[in-house]
Amino acid sequence: MSLCMGTKATATVAFYNSGSRGWVQGKMGEVAYLGTWSPEPGQDSASILGGDGTLGSPATGWPRYNRLAAQPAPYVGPNQVAWFQFDVVAPPVPGTYRVALRPLIEGAQWMEDYGVFWVVTVLKADGTPPPPPPAPVQVITTTVLASYYGPGLYGNRTACGQTLTATLQGVAHRTLPCGTLVHLKYGANEVTVPVVDRGPQILSREFDLTYATKLALGCPDMCTLSWIH
Asked: What is the value of pTM for the model shown?
C-alpha cells in the first residue's frame, strides 16, 4: 500500500478458521481479533500506523492500541473466512513501514498464524517513492572453543601494539584485523571486545581471551562460546 504523508486508507486481511470451534463476536474467550505482533511493533505494542490514540498510537479507529480489528461477522464457523478491516495512517516521514499482525481469540490464545505484515510505503512530497529500505544484516552464530592467556606475559606488547595487562579487554585471533570487534556469549554473559593480539597457537581453538575478558564472560580456563557475527 502506497500513501501520501498523513493520509489514511483501509486495509483488509482475510483469515481462515481452520479450527473446530466457531468465533463468536463480543464473547470473551471466543471472539477473534487481530493483535500487534513481533518484530514490528512487538507483541501487544503500539504501532505508528494506527491505534486508538493511546500510548502514542494515532487514532485510526482500532478497538485498542494493540488490536487492529475485531471479527466483522457475528459468527465465523469452522472452515469459514473472516475479512478483517482496519484503518492505517501514513506517518509524516517518507519511508517503508510495517505492522506485524496475528489473529487471536481474546482472553484465550494466539492462533498459529505467523509472518503476516501490512506494509505501508509513504511517498515523498512529489509523489515519488522513497529509497528502498536497507537489506537486513545476516547474523551468524558459530560455536567455538576458546582458552585464555596472560599470566607470565603481562607487560609484553601484543601483536596489535597494546600492552598486555590483567585488565585489558580483548581477544587474540589468527586472521581478524586488529581492532575488529568480536561479540561473544557464554551462558547469560555477553561481551563485545576488540582483537588485540594474534593467536591461539592451537588450531582447534578459535580465540584466546585476555584475563579480563575471561572474567567478564565467566569462562573457565577452556570454554565453548557462541561467536555472534
From this structure: 0.59
